[in-house]
Write a structure and sequence with these properties.
Strand content of chain B: 25-35%
Structural class of chain A: mainly alpha
Number of helices of chain B: 11
Largest sheet of chain A: none
CATH superfamily of the largest domain in chain B: P-loop containing nucleotide triphosphate hydrolases
Oligomer: heterodimer
CATH architecture of the largest domain in chain B: 3-Layer(aba) Sandwich
Helix content of chain A: over 70%
Distance between the termini of chain A: 23 Å
Number of helices of chain A: 11
Order of helices and strands of chain A: HHHHHHHHHHH
Number of domains of chain A: 1
Shape of chain B: elongated
Number of strands of chain B: 14
Structural class of chain B: alpha/beta
Order of helices and strands of chain B: HEEEHEEEHHHEHEHEEHEHEEHEH
Strand content of chain A: under 5%
Number of strands of chain A: 0
Strand order of the largest sheet of chain B: 6-7-8-3-9-10
Shape of chain A: globular
Helix content of chain B: 25-40%
Largest interface: A-B, 24 and 30 residues
Chain lengths: ~280, ~350
């Protein structure tokens, strides 16, 4: 009964994503990014003649991380702006009235929406990310050490952000929830950079900023884990001076951090369920 | 609720029989027992209250809608009609009170399995087609409605040729028609319509009236909130009048409109004659025209007796016209008579 509702709503959410302009916008942005990166990697490879092989690998893996950051930003923006309107927008417009007057639990509807968005976000990361890795492989011959883990962590980052956007959209307006979640995503990234600089300078206070923000919103932590999957492991050993660069990851993610991320997602989803259940329409 | 009838078979389901054939027999017996009871009312609500910050939207509202009845919910803007409907459907949480839909507590989503609803603020997924919208709602209701039946449902509301078109291209009126189809698609036993004709042209309104009459003939219960009193008067068996969040009056149309009035054009009306008029019912006067509201249970001789008495008291009687109070007049009467109401 509940499973049927969850799956029906998940399918509806995917259908919505497919039929609304956001998918086209996302597709156009992704194709532009992929095309640019293909051209860039091709040019990069052409200029490698003057570089040592270590320098070439460093350059390639760094550019790959930069492009992947762009992709993760597109995924984050896309899903956050899909998740925002999905609850708040439907409540505002009145679409939710007809749906929730059916014999359905609100928590099942919310879970269905979440599941649909998870499939959409993860699917996007898988397709766009894999295409990007293939482009890099074809143009420069570089193969990242852990492509699957990297993409999985990028998908997890998208899931974290869309869960946040979903929770916000049960409380605030559609546009606000999208903007706030993307804003927090950016703020956490900046806090991560600040933390990295703090570590490099041996400033405990600044380093704490990064650690705390990675706990509060795990997007940046997962992004750093994903980068580790794409960067050349020999690079850090070869060029220790680069260790504090924001597009490099020094340490792998701990299982405890991954467990915390899972718990974080479940907590937020549960909270969204409670808020949505109590909300008057 | 009907009386509980004890039957010997019901004892088979004793608490210690938790599994096995005995428990099954007990469950069957319990089903038979319930089946033997008169059907629970379509809607039963008691003591509903809802406050939005400082404003009381619904204040101790209780009413019942029997199976197969068509009940109109009337009242001025802001009387709490839509809030009451949303509480019944579990869309708004009441601060107090209980609701049973088709015999089940409204807290249980399954209570709405056989309920169709057209919201006042009707809006459907704009990226779906009309046919897909109906399929979605049938699936959410958990009812297997064949495609042919869904098409028929669209045809009932006049959208047969737009089944494959996206809702985003529909006019307001067409969306409201689609909303009616959505309310009807899952073979409901109770249909709740909140202002079903607000976006419709006169032809659409006539269609809705026919639809309501068709539902009535099929014994489908309807709770109708409408501003169009004429519409309510034509199709409803009973009305519940809400004002400032409270039930101001409720009853069958006969009970509410049973009251007749008598218009008399008189002159030479002495104080005794005025007393005699007042004894017959509530009197309003405009110039030489006196309107007497006669009680519903008057006997047939009341009017000739009144005229004879007035003549005997020396009153010159120019005209005596019987009149029937319309629901609109009665509604205004009730709302204006409310304590603290808008007396004019």
């Amino acid at each position: 009964m509940t499973a049927r509702v969850v799956l029906t709503v998940a399918a509806l959410t995917l259908q919505e994503a497919a039929r609304r302009r956001v998918l086209r916008a996302l597709a156009v942005m992704t194709i532009v990014l992929l095309a640019l990166s293909a051209w860039g990697f091709f040019r990069l490879d052409a200029n490698f003649g003057t570089l040592t092989s270590g320098e070439a690998r460093l350059a390639t893996s760094q550019v790959l991380n930069l492009v992947m950051f762009g992709l993760s930003l597109i995924a984050a923006l896309g899903t956050a702006f899909l998740a925002g309107p999905t609850v708040a927008g439907e409540i505002e417009s009145g679409t939710a009235l007809a749906i929730l007057a059916r014999p359905v639990r609100r928590s099942a509807v919310l879970l269905g929406k979440w599941l649909g968005l998870v499939v959409f976000g993860s699917g996007f990361v898988a397709v766009a990310g894999l295409t990007q890795l293939l482009i890099v492989w074809a143009t420069t011959g570089y193969r990242p050490p852990q492509p699957v883990t990297g993409l999985a962590l990028l998908a997890a980052q998208t899931i974290v952000l869309l869960t946040l956007a979903l929770l916000l959209s049960t409380v605030i307006s559609p546009m606000a929830s999208g903007i706030v979640s993307v804003g927090l995503f950016g703020a956490t990234w900046v806090a991560g950079v600040v933390g990295g600089v703090g570590q490099a300078l041996g400033n405990q206070g600044m380093a704490q900023v990064g650690t705390v923000s990675r706990m509060l919103l795990p997007t940046d932590g997962l992004w750093r884990g994903a980068m580790r999957g794409f960067q050349d492991p020999a690079v850090l050993a070869q060029f220790p001076a680069f260790a504090d660069f924001p597009f490099l990851s020094k340490a792998p993610l701990t299982p405890i951090y991954l467990a915390w991320t899972c718990l974080w997602v479940m907590l937020l989803l549960g909270l969204a369920g409670v808020v949505f259940q109590r909300r008057d329409l | 609720m009907g009386p509980v009838i004890r039957r010997p078979a019901a004892r088979q389901g004793a608490p210690d029989d938790v599994s096995g054939p005995a428990a099954e027999a007990g469950a069957e017996a319990a089903e038979r027992l319930v089946a033997g009871l008169p059907a629970a009312p379509a809607v039963w609500c008691s003591g509903l209250r809802k406050r939005y910050r400082r404003r009381t939207a619904v204040d101790d509202v209780s009413f019942t809608v029997g199976r197969g009845e068509v009940v109109g919910l009337l009242g001025p803007n802001g009387a709490g009609k839509t809030t009451v409907i949303k509480i019944l459907l579990g869309l708004v949480r009441p601060d107090a009170g209980d609701v049973l839909l088709l015999g089940r507590p409204a807290r249980d989503p399954q209570a709405r399995a056989r309920v169709g609803y057209l919201p006042e603020l009707f809006r459907y997924q704009l990226w779906l087609t009309a046919a897909e919208t109906l399929a979605l709602h049938a699936r959410l209701a958990g009812v297997a409605v064949p495609a042919g039946e869904r098409r028929e449902c669209l045809a009932t509301v006049g959208l047969a040729d737009r089944a494959g078109d996206r809702v985003g291209g529909f006019s307001k009126g067409m969306q409201q028609r689609l909303g009616l189809a959505v309310a009807l698609v899952a073979r409901p036993e109770l249909v709740v319509l909140d202002e079903p004709t607000s976006a419709l042209d006169p032809i659409g309104r006539a269609d809705v009236r026919d639809l309501l009459l068709a539902l009535k003939s099929r014994q489908v219960t309807v709770l109708l909130n409408s501003h169009l009193i004429g519409e309510v008067e034509r199709v409803c068996d009973r009305v519940v009048i809400l004002d400032k969040g409270k039930v101001a009056a409720s009853g069958t149309l006969a009970e509410l409109l049973g009251q007749r009035e008598l218009r008399l054009r008189l002159d030479a009306v002495s104080p005794e004659a005025k007393e005699r008029l007042a004894a017959a019912g509530r009197v309003t006067r405009s110039g030489d025209t006196f309107t007497v509201a006669l009680p519903a249970d008057q006997d047939v001789a009341a009017v000739p007796d009144l005229v004879a008495d007035l003549v005997a008291l020396g009153v010159r009687v120019h005209a005596v016209e019987p009149g029937r109070i319309s629901l609109e007049e009665r509604l205004l009467d009730i709302l204006r008579a409310e304590p603290g109401g808008d007396r004019r």
